Structures are given as structure tokens and as C-alpha cells.
Amino acid sequence: MKQQQRENAIVFADPERCLGCHGCELACALAHSGTGLHQAALQGLTLRPRNRVVAAGDVMMPVQCRQCEDAPCACACPTGAMLQEKGAVGVREKNCVGCKVCVMVCPFGAISVKHEGSEEATGRTNGGVARKCDLCAGTGREIPACVEGCPTKALTLVDLEEYRQSLIEARAAELAQSLQFLKKRKAKL
Amino acid sequence: MTLNLTTDPSAATLLPIAKKEGISTVWDRHRAMQPQCGFGQLGVCCRICWKGPCRIDPFGDGPQRGICGADADTIVARNLIRMIAAGAAGHSEHGRHVALALQGVSQGKLPAYQIRDEAKLLRVAAKLKICTEGQEIQAVAAAVAKATLEDFQSQDHDAPCNWIEATLTKERLERLQALHVVPHNIDAVITQIMGRTLVGCDADPVNLILGGIKGALADFNGMCLATEISDALFGAPAPVVTAANLGVIKPDAVNIAVHGHNPLLSEVVCEVAQQMDEEARKAGAKEGINIVGICCTGNEVMVRHGIPLAANYLSQELALVTGAVDAMVVDVQCIMPSVAEIGACFHTAVITTMEENKIKGASHVSFKEETALENARQIVETAIEAYKRRDPRRVNIPDFKQTAIVGFGLESVVAALATLNAEDPLQPLIDNIANGNIRGIALFAGCNSTQVAQDSSFVTMAKKLAKNNVLLLATGCGAGSFAKHGLMTQEATVEYAGDSLKAVLTAIGTSAGLNGPLPLVLHMGSCVDNSRAVEVAVAVANRLGVDLDKLPLVASAPEAMSEKAVAIGTWSVALGIPTHLGTMPQVTGSAQVTELLTQTAKDLLGGYFLVELDPELAAEKLLEVIDERRKGLGI
Fold this sequence. Notes:
The complex is a heterodimer of chains A (189) and B (635). By secondary structure, chain A is an alpha+beta fold. Chain A is 32% helix and 17% strand.
């Protein structure tokens, strides 16, 4: 039996609503740290968001991994650390050597390879592995922390199947209305 | 609307009504405000110039300096001491107001006010080293007012403010002078904080915090003079039995809620309301006029006259939702702007009274000391008119009120102790601290905050500390919490106090003629009256010949939110008192400032901040601190 295929979900940022407050970055960094805001600050932890708020022209919006269906990073990764799993492009951090091929091929600049939290640079390693938005997989959240943390609701988690369905239904409803109108006109003639 | 945001039983009755009526309350707005900005919570957001706003990345390789070059330590310190300046400004404006009223009385210009407590005025004069021998009371008042107003005027940077010099232990004063943090002029110190935190000025976190401590001590100075002169004008508190929580609102009376902070307004409203009782009855109110208090002005008239307390900070809106408050008269501080809108949902007249504190949608009666009586009359008339428009079908007064025995300033505490030992009233207290019957003293102060389920941290901590024989004092919204939850009763002492504390409270209460123990928590008054607790502590310290930082004395603001609390907490630390905060202060974005306040302060001042959000753990930590201090004294 064929598996039904769904596209990976994406975080959509509405540039009309984004204020550039960086709240999504803070929420993302904390969500992946497993600790609270004040504790992390008091411990002086190094935490990194997987999204970046950028300003271009007169709009601002966070940019993060698009969870590509044919992901260049996953194709290029020499160790197989980048792969399609559970409806997103995942990173198996323990398999990553930090070679940065994925960084070079990602068209969105959505990947960074730096150490974080308790990882320490030593003489032998810089302690960095590839990190990017994983839709908060493994953080036990229903919706990604950035979406939750946005004060202006500029971010949404989009399920493409539902998105397309609602578009199709909306257009069909408009066509149905036209059809009704034509039928009425025909009846009058 | 979940109810775990407050432990006030009245809320369970009134919040569903608010919801049904489409009235949003402080808790709804708190929920709508989630998530709150993390940068602001850490204190690393700077809005001090228009190149900004800037914020520091607390975790990664984002910006570590603002556009001007200020780092997280500088930004956090500047933000913090600006809050202290605002707190000090609030208290000191209140104090200035009261001092000017005393001056007016001494000049015979204010018919609405008298010196009701001449003995207190004489004590204040003696404290300020003013010679009163053969002086008329008016002349003493003039001299006290003059010495007090000097604290707002002196340009001699080396001379401490008169009040702080007269109040503290000698050793404490010297220690603070060595750090150059003793204020010489309240206004100048507040102005200096605003000046030094301007773009491109003081950027050294340590220097900034020391400037903030000076501001906090200016706040203390302003509080002392506000409290003591209010006592002279209106009478020092004496024990009185009254009640608290929204059940004190009466269905058959014209209910006037006095809300805000300054007794200059609430005292006169109480007095005029008594005279106009008959007019209210004529308007159909069988029970005449019923004054109830909200927040600190409520505490002021509660401890002086036994006026019942309807609500503390977070319940102020609920008082309006009862539909039975005919007028809410407000002056300054802690008045939610939402009260005007909620009042408009009912027949309630929300009346602002101060030129510099108006609220959109409220009506305004310009209250001046010179015309206080007619202003108050106009306010009470407005309330009676509003009463005629009250819709009885919309009245929902929760059936919750608790008895509260309140009114324990230094004088009434000493008077109660004097019944045990007239020669040396402090001796019984000191003996009982020394022999461990009283393990220590804790002062509960501060606000309510939506970060904590209303009143819960106060009540949890108090029960635990009392069980461990800690003598409890309270002011402000903390005192309001205890009054509302029935912890200011003799029954509470019987139920919650540890055995030895119970014995002491019973001995004092019985000999003072209360036919039973003192209440579990002693209500010392409003927020501005925190200076009363210091007075008691200084009296004990002087008697023992030690400084304040040696006493088994702690302070706690488990639900703090206002800038006034930031200032009070900071002077409490500066006076050598370990001070607990139960809400997270907005400083954790700077390791240096956090360390300064929680660690370094210990060596510099003897007092320090202890942050613990869990009330159970907080009580345990305070007990440890008390025991550590006892050990230091060898008791």
C-alpha cells in the first residue's frame, strides 16, 4: 500500500505584522535549552536561536529553515546527519562533524554550526554542530516556541495540506456563487 | 478565566459576573499580555534615547552593547535606579504634601486640619532636636514643618537630611556616609538619578547602583516624614477592631471607596461623610454612608479609625463589580486606569482629586487643602446622587469579610509592652527574642502582582513563619492580604502561631486589655508606614547597642510590583535587613548587578536581596537567615 505523502510543515512569518522585537529568537533559544529565562541568564548560558529576524527594505521578519522537500542540506551532508524525518528536515547532532557543507548549500542561510549551552570549545573541537529550525521537535511542544512567543501573532505554523484545502474551498465557493447566479439568469430567460 | 490567579474568595463570586458583563479585569489583561517580552524581564532593554530602542542579546552572539555602547550591566543598572527614583518621587511627593499641610496648619490657613496628636508632634520635634520648651503647639508645628521642608531644599551636600539623621542608629549612619549614599536633599537625589542615567552619563554599574541606594534612602527619608507628620495631624494608630474584604460594602448604604495613598484626602472625606450621614438616609440609604478603604489610603484610615478595608491592589476592580460602590474617590498611586471604564459600566462615580493624577473617563474634583471641607462635601454629594441611580438588580456583594485587629505603630506596640514593664517597655520584647520565644521578626511589605496568585505567597509564608515563632509585622497590600484572609485575629494566633510565640502574644495581649492574644500579624499601616517597622527595629538595636544588620530581622515583599517596592526593598537592604523578593526583579540580564544586590551588598551594607519565588522555600530561607543572625548575637 502506498504511503500518503504530506509536505513538511513550515513556519510562516507575516512581514505586515512583524515588529522586529526578536521575541521569537529569545523564545526559540530558550525552547531548545530546556531551561527558563532567568535561570539561563543567571547561569550565563550560551544559547542560540534557530531563526533570525532580518530587515530588508522596509519590512522585517524572522527567517528560518523552510523544511525543503528536496533539501540541499540533506543531499549534501557527507555523514547523513541531515535527513527527512517526522515531517521536517532533522539534524542528528551526534552524526554531525560541523563541516558546514549544509551551510554553503542552504539558500536561506538558515543553518549555523556553533557550540551552545554546555558544549565547550577545547583544543580538539570547537564543539559546534549544525543547528536549524526543527519545528521544536523533541521539546514537547504542540506548536513551535517562536509562534507561541510572538506578541503580534506574525508567525503561524502552516500545514500545507490544510492551507491548500482552505484555498481550494474558498475559490470553489466563489465559483459556486457565480454558477448560482448564472442558473437564476437562465431561469428568468 | 481560571481562578488560580487569586486566592481572594470574593473573586470566585465576582469574576464570573465580570465575564458575563463583558468587563475585562486585571487578570484578563494579564493573560492577553502573554507572552511578556523576555528582554524587558531581564532588564536588558534600553529606551533611554531615540537612537534606540536597544536590547542586549542575553544568550548568544547578538549585540552585546547598545548603539551608544552601553552594555547589559549599564543598561540594567540604569533601568533599576530610574525605578528607584520613581518610587522615591512618589513617596516623597506624598511626604511633601503632608509637610506643607503641617506648615499650613501652623499658619492657621487650613481649617479642615488640626494637630490631633500633640504628644506625637512633640516627640517628632524632640527627635529632630527642635527645642519645644515653652513653645505654643503652632510654633512647634511651624518648626517641624521647616526642618522637614529643609530635606527638600538643602544644598549642603555634606549634611544628611534631618529625618534620616534623626532616625537611624549612629553606626548605620556612619556606614552609609562612608559609602557616600546618605541623601542631603530628596529632590536633588532624585534629580541626580535622572541626570546620571541620561544618555552618555554614568555607565559604571557599581556607581549607578550606589546612586540608586542613595535614592532609595531618600525614599526612606520621605516615608519617615510622611508617616510621622500624618500621625501628628491625624493621630498615631491605636489598636482597633474592624473588618476586611468586599463583604464590608453594605447593600443599604451609600458606599464610598477611598482609594490611593494620601490621608489628607481620605481623612477629610471620612469626617465630612459623618456629618452628611442624614442626607444619605434622606436619599433612601437606610444605613447612611459607609466608607470603605482600598489600597493604602484604606490602610491609613483603617489603622487610625477602624474604617474597614474592602480591597488591596489586585481586587480594586472587583469592588466596582459588586455594583454597590457609589463613588470611588482616588488620589495618587496604585490606581488602575481601568477603574474609570469599569465604573462607567455601573452607576459608580469615579472621582480623581489631584491635578497631577487624572484618569480619562473619570470625573475630577480639584482637591485643595484650603478648600478640603467643601471639596469633600462635593465628593460625598456626588456619591449620594450616584446612589440614587444604583440598580439593585446588579448588586452582588460577596459574603466574605474577616475581622481584623489593626493599628500597631511604634507607640501602640510600646504601650502594649509597657503594660508588662512600664519602666522599660522594650525589655519584655528583647527578653523574649533572647530566650528564643520569639525566634525573629519579619516585616511583610509590598504589593500584589499578577505574577503571583493574589495573596497566596503572603499567606503561605506568614503561616509558616508564625508556626516557627517569628513575630510578623505587615504594611501596605501585604497587610491588606492578611486582613482579608483573617490572619489579623486572635483566633489566627491560636491556630497558627508556634507555642512560644503564642505565649508571648497572649501575655502582651492580655495585659494590654485585649482579653486574649495580639493578632497573628501586626498591621503597621500603609506602604509609606514601612518606616514604623524601622523605628521599632532601631529602638531595639539602640537598646542592645548593636546595628540593624545584627538583629534577627528580615523583610519580605513576596508579591512586589511597584517602583515604590523597588525603592523600599533597596533601602531595606541599605539599612542592613535581608530582604526577600517573591517576584523576579528585572535585573537578571546583568550578572554584575545581580551579584551586587544579592552578594556584594552583604559585605557593603549587611543587608541583601534574597530572591525566591516559591513561598514555602522562601520562608525556610528566611528562617535560616534569622538563625544565622541569632548565632551572630550569641543567642
